[in-house]
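Problem: given the chain below (295 residues), write out its structure.
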Amino acid sequence: MSFSGETKSTLAQELIAKDCCITACLAGMLYFSPVTDEGILTFKTESKEVSDTFSALLLKIVGMETEAKRVGSAYKTEIKGENFETIRHLTVKADDDTHITKFFNCRKCDNMFFRGAFMASGFVNPPDKPGRIELSTADADLACESATALTRHFRMPKLSVRRGYQIIYYRDAESIEYFLSYIGANKAAFAIINAQMLKEKNNEVNRKKNCDIANITKSVTASSIYVDAIQHLMETGDFDKLPLELKNTAKLRAENETMTLSELAELENPPISKSQVSKRLQKIYNFYKELNPDE
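Solution.
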Protein backbone atom coordinates (compact mmCIF):
# COMPACT_ATOMS: atom_id res chain seq x y z
CA MET A 1 0.00 0.00 0.00
CA SER A 2 1.20 3.51 -0.76
CA PHE A 3 2.27 6.02 1.89
CA SER A 4 -1.01 7.89 1.26
CA GLY A 5 -2.98 4.68 1.67
CA GLU A 6 -1.23 3.80 4.93
CA THR A 7 -1.84 7.31 6.25
CA LYS A 8 -5.55 7.07 5.41
CA SER A 9 -5.82 3.62 6.98
CA THR A 10 -4.32 4.93 10.21
CA LEU A 11 -6.74 7.86 10.22
CA ALA A 12 -9.69 5.55 9.60
CA GLN A 13 -8.84 3.43 12.64
CA GLU A 14 -8.69 6.37 15.06
CA LEU A 15 -11.86 6.94 17.07
CA ILE A 16 -13.83 10.18 16.71
CA ALA A 17 -15.50 11.12 19.98
CA LYS A 18 -18.23 13.70 19.38
CA ASP A 19 -21.26 13.27 17.12
CA CYS A 20 -20.73 16.68 15.51
CA CYS A 21 -17.16 15.68 14.58
CA ILE A 22 -18.35 12.35 13.18
CA THR A 23 -20.86 14.23 11.02
CA ALA A 24 -18.15 16.65 9.87
CA CYS A 25 -15.83 13.77 8.95
CA LEU A 26 -18.56 12.04 6.93
CA ALA A 27 -19.43 15.36 5.24
CA GLY A 28 -15.78 15.76 4.22
CA MET A 29 -15.82 12.27 2.69
CA LEU A 30 -19.04 12.98 0.80
CA TYR A 31 -18.13 16.50 -0.33
CA PHE A 32 -14.85 15.31 -1.81
CA SER A 33 -16.31 12.26 -3.56
CA PRO A 34 -17.34 12.70 -7.21
CA VAL A 35 -21.06 12.99 -8.04
CA THR A 36 -22.35 12.41 -11.56
CA ASP A 37 -25.09 14.42 -13.24
CA GLU A 38 -27.36 11.41 -12.72
CA GLY A 39 -26.97 11.77 -8.96
CA ILE A 40 -24.55 8.91 -8.31
CA LEU A 41 -21.93 9.50 -5.63
CA THR A 42 -18.87 7.23 -5.78
CA PHE A 43 -16.56 6.69 -2.84
CA LYS A 44 -13.39 4.84 -3.86
CA THR A 45 -10.33 3.96 -1.80
CA GLU A 46 -7.39 1.55 -1.78
CA SER A 47 -7.80 1.05 1.98
CA LYS A 48 -10.28 -1.46 3.40
CA GLU A 49 -10.14 0.39 6.74
CA VAL A 50 -11.21 3.63 5.06
CA SER A 51 -13.99 1.85 3.16
CA ASP A 52 -15.25 0.23 6.38
CA THR A 53 -15.14 3.59 8.19
CA PHE A 54 -17.15 5.22 5.41
CA SER A 55 -19.82 2.54 5.72
CA ALA A 56 -19.81 2.76 9.53
CA LEU A 57 -20.27 6.54 9.51
CA LEU A 58 -23.14 6.31 7.02
CA LEU A 59 -24.84 3.74 9.21
CA LYS A 60 -24.34 5.81 12.39
CA ILE A 61 -25.30 9.23 11.01
CA VAL A 62 -28.09 8.46 8.52
CA GLY A 63 -28.86 4.79 9.23
CA MET A 64 -27.80 3.74 5.73
CA GLU A 65 -26.35 0.32 5.05
CA THR A 66 -23.91 0.15 2.14
CA GLU A 67 -21.68 -2.48 0.61
CA ALA A 68 -18.32 -1.82 -0.99
CA LYS A 69 -17.32 -3.76 -4.10
CA ARG A 70 -13.74 -4.81 -4.75
CA VAL A 71 -12.61 -3.34 -8.07
CA GLY A 72 -9.03 -4.36 -8.74
CA SER A 73 -7.02 -3.13 -5.77
CA ALA A 74 -9.68 -0.59 -4.72
CA TYR A 75 -12.91 -0.65 -2.73
CA LYS A 76 -15.80 1.16 -4.41
CA THR A 77 -19.10 2.26 -2.88
CA GLU A 78 -21.86 3.82 -4.99
CA ILE A 79 -24.74 5.79 -3.49
CA LYS A 80 -27.66 6.50 -5.81
CA GLY A 81 -31.42 6.69 -6.05
CA GLU A 82 -33.22 6.84 -2.73
CA ASN A 83 -29.96 6.45 -0.83
CA PHE A 84 -28.56 9.53 -2.54
CA GLU A 85 -31.68 11.50 -1.59
CA THR A 86 -31.12 10.40 2.01
CA ILE A 87 -27.67 12.01 2.16
CA ARG A 88 -28.48 15.14 0.14
CA HIS A 89 -28.17 17.29 3.26
CA LEU A 90 -24.59 16.03 3.71
CA THR A 91 -23.39 16.43 0.11
CA VAL A 92 -22.06 19.33 -1.87
CA LYS A 93 -24.94 18.88 -4.31
CA ALA A 94 -27.52 19.23 -1.55
CA ASP A 95 -28.42 22.82 -2.35
CA ASP A 96 -27.10 25.94 -3.98
CA ASP A 97 -24.78 26.85 -1.13
CA THR A 98 -21.61 24.90 -0.35
CA HIS A 99 -20.82 26.47 2.99
CA ILE A 100 -18.76 23.74 4.61
CA THR A 101 -18.51 25.83 7.76
CA LYS A 102 -22.05 24.73 8.63
CA PHE A 103 -20.42 21.49 9.78
CA PHE A 104 -17.90 23.29 12.03
CA ASN A 105 -19.83 23.12 15.29
CA CYS A 106 -16.92 22.65 17.72
CA ARG A 107 -13.23 23.44 17.65
CA LYS A 108 -12.42 19.95 16.28
CA CYS A 109 -15.08 19.72 13.57
CA ASP A 110 -13.06 21.47 10.89
CA ASN A 111 -10.13 19.13 11.54
CA MET A 112 -12.48 16.17 11.14
CA PHE A 113 -14.03 17.60 7.97
CA PHE A 114 -10.62 17.79 6.33
CA ARG A 115 -9.70 14.36 7.70
CA GLY A 116 -12.72 13.03 5.79
CA ALA A 117 -11.75 15.06 2.72
CA PHE A 118 -8.23 13.62 2.81
CA MET A 119 -9.50 10.05 3.19
CA ALA A 120 -11.78 10.61 0.19
CA SER A 121 -9.49 12.40 -2.24
CA GLY A 122 -6.19 13.20 -0.55
CA PHE A 123 -2.67 12.37 -1.57
CA VAL A 124 0.67 12.89 0.15
CA ASN A 125 4.10 12.11 -1.24
CA PRO A 126 6.18 9.63 0.79
CA PRO A 127 8.95 11.12 2.96
CA ASP A 128 11.72 10.27 0.48
CA LYS A 129 10.02 12.20 -2.35
CA PRO A 130 9.64 15.97 -2.92
CA GLY A 131 7.06 17.37 -0.51
CA ARG A 132 3.46 17.55 -1.71
CA ILE A 133 0.04 17.05 -0.15
CA GLU A 134 -3.22 17.68 -1.95
CA LEU A 135 -6.99 17.35 -2.03
CA SER A 136 -8.94 17.12 -5.29
CA THR A 137 -12.52 17.94 -6.20
CA ALA A 138 -14.49 18.57 -9.35
CA ASP A 139 -16.24 21.53 -7.71
CA ALA A 140 -14.41 24.86 -8.10
CA ASP A 141 -16.53 26.58 -5.43
CA LEU A 142 -15.75 23.84 -2.93
CA ALA A 143 -12.04 24.14 -3.71
CA CYS A 144 -12.06 27.89 -3.09
CA GLU A 145 -14.13 27.61 0.08
CA SER A 146 -11.91 24.82 1.44
CA ALA A 147 -8.76 26.82 0.70
CA THR A 148 -10.26 29.79 2.54
CA ALA A 149 -11.23 27.62 5.52
CA LEU A 150 -7.67 26.28 5.77
CA THR A 151 -6.27 29.81 6.05
CA ARG A 152 -7.98 30.06 9.44
CA HIS A 153 -5.17 27.85 10.73
CA PHE A 154 -2.17 28.26 8.42
CA ARG A 155 -1.04 29.66 5.11
CA MET A 156 -3.17 29.77 1.98
CA PRO A 157 -2.82 26.60 -0.11
CA LYS A 158 -2.11 26.74 -3.82
CA LEU A 159 -4.82 25.93 -6.36
CA SER A 160 -4.50 24.34 -9.78
CA VAL A 161 -6.50 22.28 -12.27
CA ARG A 162 -5.61 18.76 -13.38
CA ARG A 163 -7.76 16.68 -15.75
CA GLY A 164 -10.87 18.66 -14.90
CA TYR A 165 -10.32 18.48 -11.13
CA GLN A 166 -9.55 21.37 -8.82
CA ILE A 167 -6.39 20.64 -6.83
CA ILE A 168 -5.77 22.19 -3.41
CA TYR A 169 -2.17 21.60 -2.41
CA TYR A 170 0.90 22.46 -0.35
CA ARG A 171 4.50 21.80 -1.33
CA ASP A 172 6.50 23.24 1.56
CA ALA A 173 7.48 20.84 4.33
CA GLU A 174 6.16 23.03 7.15
CA SER A 175 2.62 23.22 5.72
CA ILE A 176 2.58 19.51 4.88
CA GLU A 177 3.62 18.57 8.42
CA TYR A 178 1.09 21.00 9.90
CA PHE A 179 -1.77 19.77 7.73
CA LEU A 180 -1.08 16.12 8.61
CA SER A 181 -0.98 16.96 12.32
CA TYR A 182 -4.12 19.07 11.90
CA ILE A 183 -6.14 16.10 10.59
CA GLY A 184 -4.61 13.73 13.17
CA ALA A 185 -2.06 11.95 10.95
CA ASN A 186 0.74 12.42 13.47
CA LYS A 187 2.66 9.30 12.48
CA ALA A 188 2.88 10.47 8.87
CA ALA A 189 3.81 13.98 10.01
CA PHE A 190 6.66 12.63 12.17
CA ALA A 191 7.88 10.47 9.27
CA ILE A 192 8.12 13.56 7.05
CA ILE A 193 9.73 15.64 9.82
CA ASN A 194 12.36 12.93 10.39
CA ALA A 195 13.02 12.64 6.67
CA GLN A 196 13.37 16.42 6.42
CA MET A 197 15.80 16.49 9.36
CA LEU A 198 17.84 13.67 7.80
CA LYS A 199 17.87 15.48 4.47
CA GLU A 200 19.05 18.71 6.11
CA LYS A 201 21.73 16.81 8.02
CA ASN A 202 22.94 15.11 4.84
CA ASN A 203 22.96 18.46 3.05
CA GLU A 204 24.99 19.93 5.90
CA VAL A 205 27.48 17.05 5.73
CA ASN A 206 27.71 17.39 1.94
CA ARG A 207 28.22 21.15 2.19
CA LYS A 208 31.00 20.64 4.71
CA LYS A 209 32.52 17.92 2.58
CA ASN A 210 32.37 20.09 -0.53
CA CYS A 211 33.81 23.00 1.43
CA ASP A 212 36.66 20.84 2.71
CA ILE A 213 37.38 19.57 -0.80
CA ALA A 214 37.30 23.12 -2.13
CA ASN A 215 39.69 24.27 0.60
CA ILE A 216 42.05 21.36 -0.06
CA THR A 217 41.96 22.05 -3.79
CA LYS A 218 42.60 25.71 -3.14
CA SER A 219 45.48 24.89 -0.79
CA VAL A 220 47.04 22.42 -3.22
CA THR A 221 46.70 24.88 -6.11
CA ALA A 222 48.30 27.67 -4.07
CA SER A 223 50.96 25.28 -2.80
CA SER A 224 51.91 24.14 -6.30
CA ILE A 225 52.79 27.72 -7.30
CA TYR A 226 55.32 27.97 -4.45
CA VAL A 227 56.60 24.41 -4.90
CA ASP A 228 57.28 25.00 -8.60
CA ALA A 229 59.17 28.20 -7.76
CA ILE A 230 61.21 26.45 -5.01
CA GLN A 231 62.10 23.52 -7.27
CA HIS A 232 63.22 25.91 -10.00
CA LEU A 233 65.46 27.76 -7.54
CA MET A 234 66.97 24.44 -6.43
CA GLU A 235 67.61 23.34 -10.00
CA THR A 236 69.32 26.62 -10.96
CA GLY A 237 71.41 26.89 -7.80
CA ASP A 238 69.72 30.13 -6.78
CA PHE A 239 68.20 28.42 -3.74
CA ASP A 240 71.41 28.93 -1.73
CA LYS A 241 71.04 32.69 -2.12
CA LEU A 242 67.98 32.66 0.16
CA PRO A 243 68.30 33.56 3.86
CA LEU A 244 68.37 30.54 6.20
CA GLU A 245 64.84 31.01 7.54
CA LEU A 246 63.42 31.17 3.99
CA LYS A 247 65.38 28.04 3.05
CA ASN A 248 63.86 26.14 5.98
CA THR A 249 60.34 27.24 5.07
CA ALA A 250 60.95 26.43 1.40
CA LYS A 251 62.08 22.89 2.26
CA LEU A 252 59.05 22.32 4.46
CA ARG A 253 56.75 23.52 1.67
CA ALA A 254 58.44 21.35 -0.97
CA GLU A 255 58.32 18.26 1.27
CA ASN A 256 54.69 18.77 2.40
CA GLU A 257 52.75 19.99 -0.62
CA THR A 258 49.27 19.21 0.73
CA MET A 259 49.74 20.70 4.19
CA THR A 260 47.93 23.87 5.17
CA LEU A 261 49.83 26.98 6.22
CA SER A 262 48.81 26.35 9.83
CA GLU A 263 50.27 22.84 9.69
CA LEU A 264 53.49 24.12 8.13
CA ALA A 265 53.74 26.76 10.85
CA GLU A 266 53.71 24.00 13.47
CA LEU A 267 56.63 22.24 11.74
CA GLU A 268 58.88 25.29 11.95
CA ASN A 269 61.52 25.23 14.65
CA PRO A 270 60.52 27.07 16.66
CA PRO A 271 56.86 27.13 15.53
CA ILE A 272 55.70 30.37 13.95
CA SER A 273 52.33 31.82 12.97
CA LYS A 274 50.36 31.05 9.83
CA SER A 275 50.79 34.62 8.61
CA GLN A 276 54.56 34.40 9.02
CA VAL A 277 54.66 31.28 6.86
CA SER A 278 52.56 33.03 4.25
CA LYS A 279 54.90 36.07 4.24
CA ARG A 280 57.99 33.86 3.90
CA LEU A 281 56.54 31.93 0.98
CA GLN A 282 55.60 35.19 -0.71
CA LYS A 283 59.18 36.45 -0.29
CA ILE A 284 60.50 33.23 -1.84
CA TYR A 285 58.12 33.60 -4.75
CA ASN A 286 59.02 37.27 -5.22
CA PHE A 287 62.73 36.31 -5.26
CA TYR A 288 61.97 33.68 -7.91
CA LYS A 289 60.04 36.23 -10.04
CA GLU A 290 62.89 38.75 -9.83
CA LEU A 291 65.22 36.16 -11.29
CA ASN A 292 62.64 34.89 -13.81
CA PRO A 293 60.42 37.86 -14.77
CA ASP A 294 59.16 36.20 -17.97
CA GLU A 295 57.87 33.05 -16.29
